[in-house]
């Protein structure tokens, strides 16, 4: 019974934390505890700091996103089309959670955020490698650079939307255009 109560409390805390941080990236631990219907002592018993709480929330959100992005049809599409489709679906999810990622950017080291994205980034890396092998994507820069740039551009778009320097409705198209330029093989006449 104690274990079941602890699991319910953890889920309530994560649900409340995700909801509140999506509304306000600066939401406090006390606000999350109150919204979850638990005391701060209970919250801190499961998550010893705000950093641990944000880490758990972002990990769960990324796992949910990775499940949603598991699209077997991507393997059948030409690489550039597959990237555009992946960006569109990724951006929809990131757009829903953009303020949550702002909270993560404020609370967690950049490398930890990147580690949490390992599984979705493997999907991106496989897609880029396929595009490179087919000659559709450039090969004059390392795959790791292209994957890192993909990741950075998605997060930069979220930050730009949050700062009101990029319209939310335009961000997906801007990302597809930017990533297309980043990945496209150089034509022989250009280089």
List keywords for this structure.
10 helices, mainly alpha, 191 residues
Please give a structural write-up.
The protein has 191 residues and is mainly alpha-helical. The chain contains 10 helices and no strands. The protein starts with a helix and ends in an 8-residue tail after the last helix. The relative contact order is 0.11. The model has no long low-confidence stretch (mean pLDDT 88).
Secondary structure elements and their pairing?
Blueprint: H1 2-23, H2 29-36, H3 40-46, H4 50-69, H5 79-96, H6 98-107, H7 110-116, H8 118-134, H9 143-162, H10 168-183
Beta content: under 5%
- Output the radius of gyration: 19 Å
Topology order in helix (H) and strand (E) letters? HHHHHHHHHH
Assign the structural class, choosing from mainly alpha, mainly beta, alpha/beta, alpha+beta, or little secondary structure.
mainly alpha
Distinct helical segment count: 10
Determine the mean pLDDT. 88
What's the shape?
elongated
- How far is the first residue's CA from the last residue's CA? 68 Å
How many β-strands, per DSSP?
0
Mind describing the biggest β-sheet?
none
Helical residue percent band: over 70%
Unreliable segments of 5+ consecutive residues:
none
Short characterization:
With 191 residues, the protein is mainly alpha-helical. It contains 10 helices and no strands. The model has no long low-confidence stretch (mean pLDDT 88).
């Amino acid at each position: 019974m104690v274990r079941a109560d602890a699991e319910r409390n953890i889920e309530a805390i994560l649900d409340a934390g995700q909801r509140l941080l999506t509304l306000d990236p600066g939401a406090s631990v006390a606000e999350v505890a109150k919204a979850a219907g638990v005391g701060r002592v209970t919250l801190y018993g499961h998550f010893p700091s705000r950093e641990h709480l944000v880490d758990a929330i972002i990990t769960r959100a990324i796992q949910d996103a990775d499940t949603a992005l598991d699209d077997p049809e991507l393997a059948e599409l030409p690489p550039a089309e597959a990237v555009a489709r992946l960006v569109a679906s990724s951006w929809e999810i990131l757009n829903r959670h953009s303020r949550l990622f702002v909270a993560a950017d404020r609370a967690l080291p950049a490398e930890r955020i990147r580690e949490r994205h390992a599984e979705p980034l493997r999907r991106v890396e496989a897609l880029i490698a396929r595009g490179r092998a087919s000659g559709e994507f450039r090969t004059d820069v390392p795959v790791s650079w292209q994957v890192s740039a993909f990741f950075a551009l998605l997060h930069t778009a979220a930050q730009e939307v949050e700062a009101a320097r990029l319209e939310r409705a335009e961000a997906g198209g801007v990302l597809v255009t930017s990533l297309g330029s980043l990945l496209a093989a150089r034509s022989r006449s250009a280089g």
